[in-house]
Amino acid sequence: MIDKRMTADEAVADVTDGMTIGFGGWGSRRKPMAFVRALVRKGVQDLTVVSYGGPDVGILCATGQANKVIYGFVSLDSIPLEPHFRKARQNGTIEAVELDEGMFLLGLRAATQRLPFLPTRAGLGSDVLKINPHLKKVKSPYDDGEELVAVPALELDVAFVHMNRADASGNGQALGRDPYFDNLFCMSARQAYMSCEELVSTAELTRGGPLQSLLINRMMVRGVVEAPGGAHFTECPPNYPRDEKFQRKYAATAKDDDAWKAFRASYLDVTEAEYQKSVAS
Amino acid sequence: MSVREATRADICALAIAECFRNDGEILVSAMGTTPSLGARLAKATFEPNLLMTDGYNLLLRRALPLGATPTDDDIEGWMPFGSVFDTLWWGRRHVMMGASQIDQLGNQNIACIGPWQHPKAQLLGVRGAPGNTINHTTSYWVPNHDARVFVPSVDMVSGVGYDRAASLDDSSSRFHEIRRVVTNLGVFDFNTPDHRMRLVSVHPGVEVDRVLASTGFELVVPDRLDTTPVPTPDQLSALRELDPQGRAQKEVAA
Questions:
Q1: Statement to judge: residues A240 and A129 lie in one domain
Q2: Would you call A101 and B111 a contact, using CB atoms and an 8 Å cutoff?
Q3: Is residue A2 a part of any domain in this protein?
Q4: Which end of chain A has fewer beta carbons closer than 10 Å to its terminal beta carbon, N or C?
Q5: CATH of the domain at A95
Q6: A-B C-beta contacts closer than 8 Å
Q7: What interface predicted TM-score (ipTM) does this complex get?
């Protein structure tokens, strides 16, 4: 079978300025942080970031690489609002597209089904329609004639996801209790890349968990990166919980430019191996 | 904490529990400490058929104490986020959310303070509030009732109120219901001819004038005003078991 193994730096090689990038995971849970760090090293600019956002969004706001964010929320879970995202919103340094969480899911589903939109009641009557003048309504063609919101497809140039385990050809396994929507992110993108805690043989992959845990199949991804600790500092159960201490340290840098510069120098302007070594100590 | 006289927090938790009375076999999502406690009290006592999660993705068959880690024996099902969305669109759900601002007709804001385009303060964002309020029953919890929360008009409508729902087709608004608002001062609903917020009961020891002075719009005050029920001894011991560390006591100001 095809061998899709590569490094995170190779995976981000084709990401260019102005692209629309999606990240799997949810808040500060199983985020593809090794890819986020690779994008920071690459320095690609003017990104549109699409995410159930966590530190993926916050970091790319803080580095100035995100100029637009499309989100259902941006949270660190134990810290309800992502502080770097808050700062970017209050300083007006990003363009924001704020959607109801369910609308966001329908946007991904529309993209995976290659539909222009999917209809929903979510958003009707709320100011989500006012702040997003691009959102249009659609009338049911049936006898009910109900008016609904038409959530446009969230089409991505590139998607990044992180799994617990994967094989070399791109089958991926999520062993935590919530798969989130990583498969939809991959299918909404022209190309998708998966990192994993552990790269195993296909036989070992199917032996190592229930079949329902095989969330990603190899059609969905172009590259596979073995990245132990690749979701750090977000949680990646059963491999590891969130590194709350490190997350608090990261969050505090939103209020102190010097602390952010030091954080960036120590943890972002370094290789992934150096990062993993320094957070392990 | 040993059983003693009911505190304001206990009264609030019972008032929250009462929001879920007769809800039956639906998913309750209660955001925050006192709502979690109140929902658990409902399930542990008069509304045992409610479905509740551990706050993540496990459906638990019994109401556990706040902060307790479920064992395998406590699990009755699985509710990952994908299933939460399916359930809320299905409508078999009652959510209790917080409100940074709420107005007379039940419009709620958790998104930002100031204009959304240039927020003075970015708050949580709309999260699931637009979809929740248009698809199923919603209640609100406000631990610090004051005129900065109870405002004439909210800065950004996140959760849909009655005037916004009325502006839609009947078919679009048919699932909209703001059942109740519980605060540290009293209980409120929208059971008035024009769905303006009504004071249902004040908590023991709270003067109506204080409620009116803490509300930035005109409340409907019925001629006959009740006092919010105080937990019975049985309910009080259930509350102590469900919140052994007294987390709700810390959240509610008297």
A1: no
A2: no
A3: no
A4: C
A5: 3.40.1080.10
A6: 131
A7: 0.96
